[in-house]
Amino acid sequence: MSAENGDAASNDDIKTMTFEQALEALEAIVNDLERGDVPLEQSIRIYERGEALKAHCDRLLKAAEDKVEKIRLSRDGAPVGTEPLDPK
To answer: Tell me, what's the pLDDT at 87?
Structure first.
């Protein structure tokens, strides 16, 4: 089994993970669960860790999305500033 045993204490490390680290850990959990050879109690624990990893990835993606900006161009095509990519 490649995913860590997921309990509340071991989930504390998630908040310090990069997006790539969290995604890799989530993929390992999905692979373990898809294999179907993980005992029920352990499946529940790693599923809960997977949910925490997914939420962390969602937060990191939202933060990145908020930083992405579109370059505004003047009529002659010169850059004149930036604006949110998807203004709300």
So the answer is: 58
